[in-house]
Amino acid sequence: MSGQKARMLAGELYLADDPELAADALRAATLSEKFNATSAAEPDARRTLLTELVGDLGERVEIRPPLYVDYGYQITIGAGTFVNFGAVMLDVGRITIGADVQIGPNVQLLTPTHPIDPELRRAKWESAEPITIEDNVWLGGGVIVGPDVTIGENTVVGAGAVVVKDLPPNVVAAGVPAAVVKRL
Asked: Which amino acids are annotated catalytic?
């Protein structure tokens, strides 16, 4: 494993133009293109491609294409989860999605971060923080979840919300930035 990939996996600053990371990204892009070209009449082909693309795929997971990822292998998806059209899962950092999660169309899970220091940014350093979506969460259409966020089990996040801080279990959250509007 290259030094840059090890740094990325450790959540440290790394350079994304590393040849090993470029090969990993190309692999993910190729598998994603194949998955995105499948039809609903090919559930076995979809499952085979997803099993190869993501790090861990639970039973009865349904993902509707198109799906966009950085590497794929940093994504874990629990059993019975549904992901609607147009999901973006930038898995520079680990993305953990629990069981029975419902993800609406055009949801973005964004783990990458960049240094605030302009010289480090100019030198192309970047890093990432993980995202955790616990069991039985519902993310409405167009939700954006930023790096270093955990959404607690049974929580509902309203359409179009931008989640930049952890949300506790058993709440409804909405808005930009997302805030708790109701306890369940």
From this structure: 114
